[in-house]
Fold each of these.
Amino acid sequence: MGRVVRLGGGAEFDLIRRFTEGSGPLPADVMLGPGDDAAVFRDGWVVSTDLSVEDVHFRREWLEDHEIGYRAAVAGLSDLAAMGSSPVALLLSLAAPRGGAVDLEAVNAGVRAAAEGHGAVVVGGDVSRSPGPLFLDITAVGCTAWPVQRSGAEPGDHVWVTGVLGASASAVRMWTSDRVPSPGLRAAFAHPRARVDEARCLVEREVVDAMIDVSDGLVGDAGHLAAASGVSITLELERVPVAPEAVQALGADEALDAALHGGEDYELCFVTDPDAVDTTEFEKLFGIPVTRVGTVEEGDGVWLQASDGSRARPTRGGYDHWEGAGA
Amino acid sequence: MGRVVRLGGGAEFDLIRRFTEGSGPLPADVMLGPGDDAAVFRDGWVVSTDLSVEDVHFRREWLEDHEIGYRAAVAGLSDLAAMGSSPVALLLSLAAPRGGAVDLEAVNAGVRAAAEGHGAVVVGGDVSRSPGPLFLDITAVGCTAWPVQRSGAEPGDHVWVTGVLGASASAVRMWTSDRVPSPGLRAAFAHPRARVDEARCLVEREVVDAMIDVSDGLVGDAGHLAAASGVSITLELERVPVAPEAVQALGADEALDAALHGGEDYELCFVTDPDAVDTTEFEKLFGIPVTRVGTVEEGDGVWLQASDGSRARPTRGGYDHWEGAGA
C-alpha cells in the first residue's frame, strides 16, 4: 500500500500534485500531458481543471455568491491564457451545502459571466449536495494552434509579468487580520480577469518562449517555469510591479511579500529573448503594464536579487492558500 | 437576485442541474452542449465531469481508498461510453481532508487503474485540502467520429439495457441497513466497469438511435432519454434484468426497485429500430447479456408495464444518492 500523505504546507502539496501528474507514456492523441497549466490534445484542444473550495480558496463572508462563481471560473480561464489558448467552454462541477445558504443561481450566473466575458460558454457539468463546504471545480476547454509550455526558457532570456501583483493576496491579508480591504484590493480578489487577449497577442507575435499564470505567487510560479525549463530565474526585487493599493494598505515590505508569495493575481509570467517586448505598445493595447522582472540563467530554482546586487534564495515558496499568508 | 434553492430531493437536483445547462447559442467549435452525458467539440472531442463526494456518493467505511478513486473515474468513463466515445484521458481534481486518514496515493492509483483499464491516461488535475469531506471531480476526455445523443429515440423503437441492474444499489441498501453485502454486490459498487467496448461496437454497427448510461437508475435514465427525444418510454417490468445476487439479498420486489430507482449500474440504456440487436452475438462478444426492456411510444415520460399489461407512472424517479434508498 502507498504511503499516507498528510496535507499541510507547500511541500506536501507539491508531493500530492505529483500524484495527479504523469501516467506512463502518452497516447498519440495527447500532445502535452501532466506538468503544465493544462493538457493539450490533438487538433490543439486544451483542457484544465481548477478547484475552488470554501474556507480554502475563499470564505463566504468575503464574497457575494456570484463572485464565488466568477473567480472560480477565472482561475480556469487563466490556465487557458497561460497556454496561449482561446477559451471555448467551461464545465461546472458544484457540490453545495444544504439549507439555502448559498444562492446557486447566483454562483452559476457568476460562472457564466466569467465565461462570456472571456469568449466562452458553459456547456455542462455536475451537481451534488455537499455534507461540508461549498466546492466548485471548473473544467476549462480551449483551443490553440501554438500551445505555450512552461519549458522553453533559456539562459539569457528575460522574464516578464503583466499588470501589477499582490493586490488579491493583500485583500486576503486584510480580511484575515480583521481589516477591511479597499475596493480596489477587494476587486482584485473578487473580480480578477484572465489575460486571454494579452496572451494571444504575445503568442501571435512569436516572442514567448515559456509562460505560466501567476496563481501561486511570483516566486512559486517563476519556480515552476525554472523547474520545467531546467534553468534558474533571478527576480530583481525592485522591478517587481507591486500593486500601489497593496503598498498603501500594508506598507512596501509586506506588499512586496504579497506579490512574491501571495496568490491568485492571474497575471501572466512569461519568458522571451532579451528586450523582445514593446512595453509602451503593450500598455497602449491593453491598458495594463508589462514589466521585466528578471533574467534566466543556467542553474536551478529562483534567486531574489536586491538593489545592491546581492542575491538570496527565497525563504519560502508559493501560495499555500491563505494559511501561510498571515492567518 | 436569483431565487435561493434548497438542496433536497430529486426535483431540486433537476432544477440545479438546469443551472449548469444552457448558456445561450453555442459557438461554432461546440457541436453539442448541455443536456447530454457530455459536451462534444469540433474534431469529435468529448468532455464530461463527474463529482464523487464522500458521504453523498460513497462512505469511506464502505470502500478501500483505491476503490474510491476507481469508481469515481468509472463514472466519468461511463459518460464517454454513453456518447459512443473512446476514452483518451482523465483529469483528477481532489480535495482531501487533513490528517492522513485518506491514502491519496491509493486514491490516485485507483483513478489510474480505471483509466488504464479503459484505454485512457491521467493527464493532469488539481489538488487542494478540504475542510470537510473528500471530494473528487473527474474530467473525462474522449473522442468519437459519431457522438450518440439522448435525443434520437422514435416511436416504435426498442429500448435495451446491457448487463444486469440493481446490484450496486443493493450493496448500498445492505450497508445502510447494517447488513453486509455479498462480494458480488460489493464489487458492483466498488469496481464497476464502463461499457466502452460495448458502446463502440453498437455504434459502429449503426444501430443506436439514442443512448445514456444507467447512473441514475433505469427509470430516471429512461426518463432522460424520453425527455430529450420528445417521446414516451414504456418499461416492461418482467423484462428488466435484475441482478440475481440482488434478488438473493433483498428479495424480488426490493431488488426490482433497486434496479428501477437505484443508481450507478453504469450499464448502457439505448434505443434502436425494432429487434436491431443480435442478443446472442452480443453476449458471446462481451460476456454480458443485452436485454430489450421496453418500447418507445408517442407521448412523454416513462410508463411501467406489469405482466398483465396494466401500466402506471413511476411513483418516483431516479437516484438521489442513497438518501431515498433506505437510509
Note: DSSP finds ten helices and 13 strands in chain A.
Amino acid sequence: MDFTASKKSRDLLERLQVFMDQHVYPSEHCHAEQLRAAENRFAALPLIDELKDKARKAGLWNLFVPPSHGEYVPHGGLTYSEYAPLAEVMGRVTWSPEVFNCNAPDTGNMEVFMNYGSKAQQEQWLKPLLAGAIRSSYAMTEPQVASSDATNIELRIDKQDGEWVLNGRKWFITGAMYERTKIFIVMGKSDPDNPDRHRQQSQVLVPWDTPGLSIVRPLTTLGYDDAPIGHAELLFNNVRVPLDNVLLGEGRGFEIAQGRLGPGRMHHCMRLIGAGQRSLELACQRAVSRSTFGRALSKHQSVREDISKSFSEIEMARLLVLKTCDKIDREGVQASVDMIAASKTTVPLLVQNLIDRCMQLHGAGGLTGDYFMAEAFNYARWCRQADGPDQVHQMALGKQIIDRYAG
Amino acid sequence: MDFTASKKSRDLLERLQVFMDQHVYPSEHCHAEQLRAAENRFAALPLIDELKDKARKAGLWNLFVPPSHGEYVPHGGLTYSEYAPLAEVMGRVTWSPEVFNCNAPDTGNMEVFMNYGSKAQQEQWLKPLLAGAIRSSYAMTEPQVASSDATNIELRIDKQDGEWVLNGRKWFITGAMYERTKIFIVMGKSDPDNPDRHRQQSQVLVPWDTPGLSIVRPLTTLGYDDAPIGHAELLFNNVRVPLDNVLLGEGRGFEIAQGRLGPGRMHHCMRLIGAGQRSLELACQRAVSRSTFGRALSKHQSVREDISKSFSEIEMARLLVLKTCDKIDREGVQASVDMIAASKTTVPLLVQNLIDRCMQLHGAGGLTGDYFMAEAFNYARWCRQADGPDQVHQMALGKQIIDRYAG
Amino acid sequence: MDFTASKKSRDLLERLQVFMDQHVYPSEHCHAEQLRAAENRFAALPLIDELKDKARKAGLWNLFVPPSHGEYVPHGGLTYSEYAPLAEVMGRVTWSPEVFNCNAPDTGNMEVFMNYGSKAQQEQWLKPLLAGAIRSSYAMTEPQVASSDATNIELRIDKQDGEWVLNGRKWFITGAMYERTKIFIVMGKSDPDNPDRHRQQSQVLVPWDTPGLSIVRPLTTLGYDDAPIGHAELLFNNVRVPLDNVLLGEGRGFEIAQGRLGPGRMHHCMRLIGAGQRSLELACQRAVSRSTFGRALSKHQSVREDISKSFSEIEMARLLVLKTCDKIDREGVQASVDMIAASKTTVPLLVQNLIDRCMQLHGAGGLTGDYFMAEAFNYARWCRQADGPDQVHQMALGKQIIDRYAG
Amino acid sequence: MDFTASKKSRDLLERLQVFMDQHVYPSEHCHAEQLRAAENRFAALPLIDELKDKARKAGLWNLFVPPSHGEYVPHGGLTYSEYAPLAEVMGRVTWSPEVFNCNAPDTGNMEVFMNYGSKAQQEQWLKPLLAGAIRSSYAMTEPQVASSDATNIELRIDKQDGEWVLNGRKWFITGAMYERTKIFIVMGKSDPDNPDRHRQQSQVLVPWDTPGLSIVRPLTTLGYDDAPIGHAELLFNNVRVPLDNVLLGEGRGFEIAQGRLGPGRMHHCMRLIGAGQRSLELACQRAVSRSTFGRALSKHQSVREDISKSFSEIEMARLLVLKTCDKIDREGVQASVDMIAASKTTVPLLVQNLIDRCMQLHGAGGLTGDYFMAEAFNYARWCRQADGPDQVHQMALGKQIIDRYAG
C-alpha cells in the first residue's frame, strides 16, 4: 500500500505550487477587477494571456493529457493518479485551470479529438486547442428534456443534400459565450428510429460562425455567469455542415459521450478537492483572526468541531478520488464506472456543505467576492447537476451494487 | 387551540393573493428584463412604481405596521400573527415586499422612527417612508469586527463644535446603493469608555448627501447584488450632522438596536416560509412534467420522499414562526427572545436546504434565473448571517434553555 | 390564533404532572429492579398495579377516550388536542402510559371495540380492558411479506364447518407475551380472490388460550424486549373461533385497519415529544454538572448549539403534532391523513436524532439504563417502523402533495 | 500510488474469508442460542472454544501483533495496513474477533504488556493472554468524572506499608464480567499533587480475585450487555497489591494510556468498516427479495440512492482507515494523531448512520436479533463514546489543524 504520488507528479506539484504562489494567488484581485471593468464580460482577459505564457514556459501546460496520448505533450502524459494532485491545486482558484490549458470543457473536447477525431479534424481543431489559441464547446444538454438520459435528446441531425442539417436547442453550453470559442461538438439524433437506442445519436463539428447557429442568452447559476467562459443557451436553425464533420462515424454519438464524460467528472472532483481544501485553510485563518464575546473563534469548541469535521471530510473525499483515479489507471474507464459514480455523487455535495460551513465562519463577508468561497460554492453546487444530476448516477450505481451483492 | 388567523388577516390574505395573481406573478419576467436592461442597476424600476400605485389603491400598503402604531395606517395595525400569513405570500416573489411598502430594511427603520423618533424626525423621515416616497438604510455591521457583538463596534460618533462627527466604516448596508435612499440610521460609539458597555453606543441620522459619507462599493452574496436595493460598503470620513440627529438620546443606541432587530428577524422568517412553500409547489409541478428513464419524476419513490419531507418541514417552520408571533403578540418582544432565536436559527437553514432539494429536482435549469429558486436560495443563505450569524443566537438561546431546565 | 390547550386539558395536565412527580418519577428505579428480578419478564409488575390503583382514584384514567365515546369515561372524552399534552407527559417515562390505562396497543384496540364491536363483544372484552383488568393484542404484521401493504397479508381466515379457521404467522405482536393479554384481534384474508383488494381482509377475535395459537418467541429491537408488554412472533395453526368473532363483518378488515392506525400513530408521536423534551432537560442538567478541560459543558459553544437546536426541534415537532390533532378534531381522521403522515414520518426520526445528541452529552453513561434516554431512543427508532415504515407513508404523502399542487 | 494490501495480508485475508465461510457465519445462530440458554451470561461459550481451536490450528491467531513484536507470533507481525483488511472481515460478526484472539480489550492489553511489562509480568500474564487461556480488563473510565480528560481521574493508588492500596470506582470496564478475566490493568492517581499533571497517574496490575475488588453490576448500552465479555462497574475498596505490580514505573500511567489508546481506536474503526460493509450487502440482498406495491425494492429509486450512498460512504471510511494505518506504519502513532482522531470521530458515526439506513430497508425485522445489524448499530454507537467521546478528539484535532494552517 502506498498513498504517495509518483516522483513525476510530485515534481510537477512542487513547480505548480511555486507558480501559484508567485503568479496566480497574487493576481486574484486583478482578475476580479479586469472582469468587472470589461465591456464584454465574455472577452478574453489580458491577465489570463500573460499567465498562460508564463505557464507554458514553465512547462505547466496541458497536464491533463494522459500517457495514452503522450505524443502530444513534452511531459509524455500523466496518469489520472498523477494528474489528480495537480488538478487539486488548480481548483484552489476557480479561474486558474485555463492558465494551464486544463480547463473544462476544453480538456474533455481535446480528448475527444485525440480519441475519435480524424487526422484532418485533429489538424484543424486539436492543434490550436492544445496551443491554447482557441476554445471549444460541447453541446449536449437540452432545455426541454431530461438529457441525462441520452435517448431523450431531441436536436435533429439530418442528412440532406450531402450535408448535415442541425435543428434544435441546447443549453448550459459551457464556453459558448467566450469570444475565443471557435468550434462546437454537437450531440444530436441522426437516426431517431433506430431500434438500438444507443445508435440513434451522432456528434458533429459546428464552427462557431456557421449560419443558423445563434446564442440565445447567457445563463447564470446561483447568480454567477462564470464569465468569461460562461454557459449559454443555443439555437440551431438549419445549421449546415459538411458530412466530414461527423466525429467517429454516424450513429456513434452515444459511444463518444460515454467515453468523454467519465474523465470530465473526475476532473471536476479533483478541482473541488482543492476548492474544499482552500476553504478549510481560510476557515483556520479566520478562526485565529476574529474574536467574539472575548474569545478567539479558534478556541470555541464548535469551531474546532467544524474544522475537525472539514479536515476529515476533505481527506475522505480526496482518497475516494485518488482511488478512483488509480482504478481508471489500472483497469480503464469502463471498469471504473462504479467508482466514478461514487466520486461524482459524493464529492460535489460534500464540498458544497464544507464550503457552506467555512463561509459561515467568515460572517457576512464570507458570502461576498472578497473570498473565493462563494464562487467555489457555486461551482460545487453546479457540479451536482453537471454531466447529469447526481440522482441519475446513483440510480446506475445503486443498481450495479445490488447486482454485485445480490446478483 | 386554534390555528386559524383572524378574520381581518384572512380577508387581507385573500385580497393579497388576488393581487399577486393579477399583478405580481405575471410581472416576474418584466422585472428581470427591466433590471437587466437598466443602465444603473440601483435605479428605481418603473414596474415597481406602477405596482406600488396599484397596491396602495388596493389597500395593501404598510401591512407590517403593528396595532401599537395603528394611527399611521388605515387598516389600524396588524399583530405579528395577522401579518405573518401576508408576509409569507410576499416572500413568494423576492422583490414583491417593496410593492406593498413592506420591505427590509425600511419596515424596521419605520418602526424605529415610530418608537424612538422625535416629532420632527418623524415629520421629516417617517412620513415619506410610509408614503413610499423615499427609502432608508440601517448602518450597523462593520467589516473589521464581529459586529454581532455590539460592544465590538468601532465607528466613532464624537461630539465636536456642537455637532456629531462620524468616522468609520460599515458594510452590508442594505439599501445604501438604491437611488431613493435618503436617510441612514447609523450606529456607532459615542462614549467608548463608559463602564456600562451597553451605554457606549448612540444612533444618529445621516442624510445620504452629507459630505464625508461615501459608498465604497456594492457587495454581492453568492453572486447576487440584490439590485436595485442592494448592499454596500460605506466610508464615514468626518461626517458632520446636527446634535438633534441623535435618536432617542445619547448612549441609547444599544437599546434601539435590541428593539429593532427582533421583529426584523421574524419578517425574514415569514417571507422565507413563502419562498420555501413556492419552491415546494414548483417542485410538484416539475415532478409531473418531466420523465426520466420512462417514468414520470412524480412516480419515483425518491421524489415522493423529497416532496413529503419538504411539505413536513415547511409546515413545521411555519408553525414555529406563527407560535413565535403569537408569543410576541401576547407577551412582547423581550419575553419572546427564546422563540425569536429559535425561529432565526432554524427557518433560514431549513428553507435553504429545502430550496436546494427543489432546485435539484429541476435539473440544471433550477439554478438559473428562469425560476425564482436560486435567488430565494441566496436570500435564505444570507439570512443565516443577517442580523447576526446563527451561532451567536444559538449561544444565547442555548444558555437561556440551560438556565431554564438546570437553573 | 391560540396555542393554548383547553381549560379541561390544562387542569388534567396539572394533576397529571403532580402525579408523575409524586408517584412515577420516584418509582423508576423500582420498576427497573422489579423487572430485573422477575422470574418471568412478561409477568405483571406489582409496582404497575399499585400505580394503576392510584391513577384510577386520581381520575387520571382512560384519558385517551375521545368525546365521541364520552359515555365510557367520567371525564366525558378528550379531543386529540386535549389529549396530546397529557400523552406527552406520559411519554417522559416509557412504561408510564399503562399506569393510566393509556398504553399501546390497548388504547387502539379499545377504540376498535368502541367503533366496530358488537354489544356482546364490548361486554366481554371492552369492559375489562377499560377497567385495566386484561390486556389485548392487535395482530397485523407478518414476517414473510411487506405487510404495510395490507394486500400482501397472507394469514388465512377460512370459513369451515360454521367456524373461522386461521392459519398463518404474525410477528411484532405487541403485548402478546404479556401474561394479562387475553384477546387478540387478528387481521387476515377471508376472501383472497375478491377483485376488490380492500374487501379481501377480515378481522376476527381470538382468545389467547384458543388451541392452535402459539407464541414462537419474543422479539427484541436494538436489544430491548420491552418487557413486560413485549413483542412476539405468533403461529396460527388451525385456530378455530366462532363466526360471531368477526369484527364489523366479513371483508371489512381493511376498513377497520384504516380507522385504527391513524390515531395510534399520533399517540406514538405525542409520547415521543415527551421523550424528546425530557432528554433535552436531562442534557441541560448534565451540562451544568460536568466540566471538561476546565470549563463547564454548559459554557462550551458546541453544547449551547446542541441545546438550542434541540429546543427548536422539539418545539417544531410538538407544533406539528398539535396542528395535526387540531385538524383531526375539526375535520376527522380521513381528511387529516396528510398531517398524520407528516407527523408519523417526521417526529420519530427527529426525536431519535435529538435523543442521540442528548445521550452523547452524557458520556458513556448516557447509553446505559441509568437514564431513560437509551430506552426512549429505541422507542423512537422502533416507531420509524411501527404501523408501517416511514417510506410507505412518504410515498402516499408525496403523491398527495404532488396532486395538490400539480393536479 | 498503490491501494492493494501486501501479499502476506492478501494471503491471510483469503484464508480468513474461507474460515469465516466455513466456521463462523454458519455458527451465528448457534452463538445466539448458547448465549440465550446460558445460566450465567458471562460464562465462556463452548462454541467460542471450538472455534478458537480451529482458528489457532489454521494459523489465524494473534493477527493483531505488529512487526515490532514479531517474536511473539509465527506470522512474524503484521503492520496496521496489513491487519486492517483482516480486522474488517472479523468485524462482520461482532463476536468473532475473540475466535482469532483479536478482541478488545485483550489486544490492547497484550500490547501494553509487550511494550511496558517487566519480564515477570509478561511471563505471568502476557503468555496466557497470547494463548487465549485467560482474558483481561483495562480500567480507566470513572462514573463521576469526565475521564476522557485523564487529569480528572479520581481513583487513588497510594503507597502504604510496601504495597499499593487502591480506592475508587470505575465503570465501562470491558471484560470485567467475563469469567475468564483474570487480570485488571488499573489507571489511578498515585501522586495527585504533582505539578506536572501528566505525572500524577500510575497503572497497576490487579488480579481479579484480589480482596476489596468487587463488581457492582453489569452495564448495558442501548439494551445490550455484550455478554459474555460485557462491561461492568467496579468498586476498589482498599485493594492491596505488591509494589512490583506497577507498570513501567510510578507516575507513568499517562504515558501508557497515550500509547495504548490510539491503536485501540483504529481496531474499532477497522472492524466497523466490516460491520458497515456487511450491512450494505444485507441491504442489497433484502432489496431483491422484497416487493412493495408491485415493485421490487431494488427498483425503487430511493433504495438505489440509499445503496449508492452507502457504498460510497463505506469506501471513503475504509480509505480513511487505511491511510491512517499507512501513516502509523511509516511515521508511528505519535505523528499520526491527526489521522487517528479523524478516523475515530468519523467512522463510528458514519457506520452508525449507514447501518440505520440498512436496518430501515429491512422493515421491523431489521431491528431484531435475526440480523446482525442491530447489534452492530449498538457497537458503532458505543464507539462514539469509547476511548473518549468524539467531541474531545475533535477538540484536539481542530486545534491541531488550525495551528497547521494558521500557525
Note: The mean pLDDT of chain D is 96.
